[in-house]
Amino acid sequence: MRTLLRLKRVMPEVRWTMWQNRSCSNSSIQRLESNSSIHKHLISKITATGPISVAEYMREALTNPVAGYYVKNDMLGAGGDFITSPEISQIFGELLGVWCVSEWMAAGKSNTFQLVELGPGRGSLASDILRVFSQLKTVLGETDISVHLVEVSPKLSQFQAECLTGDNTQPNDGDQPVYRSGTTRTGLPISWYRRIEDIPRGFSVFLAHEFFDAIPIHKFQRTEKGWREVMVDIDPESPGKLRFVVSHSPTLASSILIQKDENRQHVEVCPEGGVIVQKLANRIAEDGGAALIVDYGHDGTKTDTFRGFKGHQLHNVLEAPGMADLTADVDISYLRKMTGNEVTCLGPITQRSFLKNMGIDSRLQVLLRNCHDPSTRAQLIHSYDMLINPEKMGHRFQFFSLLNRGRLAQYRGMQKNTAPLPVAGFAELDMQ
Ligand SMILES: C[S@@+](CC[C@H](N)C(=O)[O-])C[C@H]1O[C@@H](n2cnc3c(N)ncnc32)[C@H](O)[C@@H]1O
């Protein structure tokens, strides 16, 4: 099927063509009827207690337990609002699978190996990675491998279960930390959680692909009186409408979240993302392992990146909350700062460089050599171009990694630049 799609967040003024949906899409999946209950709820709340922060607005719109965007919708793919790299090509997940195994090997081949994905969407990335794990069975040997998914959306967790297990899962009662569990199609135990802290301790490789961009941000504006928080209020000219206002006095967030040396005029800060990355760093430091964070991000340079997507079009963020995707570029310099020196941070490096370092060109050649159908060949080449072309996703998306500090201890003792960094995907970087 040839479908016109607008790539989420990637040069939204250009239309991209996607030729085929990925394996884990389900043609029976329908977008749920949208409703405006969050809009009504927010109007009542602001009327009663005054303007709310952008973070509160974003949290309600995306993850309100009853009507939040991620809770209710299947937003990925042709019938949805955006498309992501794992949905575009199997090669993406395969190369990340090789990265996971390579880090497990480099870290000393722990007897247990937890693959943890934050915000797995439809499950396509984990599915491609698990296929690689099966193909590398002889390398992984008798290792006790398990899969752990952190997903806030019951709806998406059902799609993930279908994709990864063929629906071989049991939902667990009420408020248990593991709300669903089962066995993957490849025979591995798999569990679903709402929070990272509920995942068992142990050597883990964490993956977060387009996860941090969905975590609520606070917005701040520099004014003559100092930093002030941008809030969401009701438009007095049009009482059913929402608008941004700048707080008259400092808020708790504006007092504690702005760095002393900040020189931008407008800043977005994601403290919840900071807490999550601290938890990852802490676990990697104590239990071993690594994390790979992939998102469209910047190194503390961008200002106003908060935006909405609906039906592959840019969408006013204050309209129809709960019915459109809301997102903000990830400030990787902030995440790095929040790791607090507990781990070694690598990157950011562009998606193009990472995938090239991981051998995407050779993988494409192998697939093309084994494929004689002209339309599938064309699709493979088209997807490859989407992933690595600097004007498409190649430079927009950044890879950032956290490693246990012991992982590069030997390298740290060597003269700088005498050898490429011995971490797959990041070879050309200097260690930070
Ligand atoms: C933009 S989608 C990305 C999906 C997938 N990683 C991909 O790239 O195709 C964001 C994912 O994060 C999940 N998510 C959003 N906020 C979350 C939160 N606070 N806790 C756990 N999962 C969350 C969403 O339900 C969804 O699965």
UniProtKB/TrEMBL annotation:
User: Which SUPFAM superfamilies does the entry link to?
Assistant: S-adenosyl-L-methionine-dependent methyltransferases
Designated name of the protein: Protein arginine methyltransferase NDUFAF7
Which reaction equations make up its catalytic activity? L-arginyl-[protein] + 2 S-adenosyl-L-methionine = N(omega),N(omega)'-dimethyl-L-arginyl-[protein] + 2 S-adenosyl-L-homocysteine + 2 H(+)
Q: Which GO terms describe its biological process?
A: methylation; mitochondrial respiratory chain complex I assembly
Q: Which family does it belong to?
A: Belongs to the NDUFAF7 family.
Q: Where in the cell is it found?
A: Mitochondrion
Asked if the keyword Transit peptide belongs to this entry, the reply reads yes
Keyword Methyltransferase assigned = yes
Recorded source organism is Sinocyclocheilus rhinocerous
Function, as annotated, reads:
Arginine methyltransferase involved in the assembly or stability of mitochondrial NADH:ubiquinone oxidoreductase complex (complex I). Acts by mediating symmetric dimethylation of 'Arg-118' of NDUFS2 after it assembles into the complex I, stabilizing the early intermediate complex.
The UniProt keyword set, sorted, is: Methyltransferase, Mitochondrion, Transferase, Transit peptide
Q: Which GO terms describe its cellular component?
A: mitochondrion
- A Pfam family of the record is Methyltransf_28
The organism's taxonomic lineage, starting at the top: Eukaryota, Metazoa, Chordata, Craniata, Vertebrata
A GO term for molecular function:
protein-arginine omega-N symmetric methyltransferase activity
Q: What is its EC number?
A: 2.1.1.320
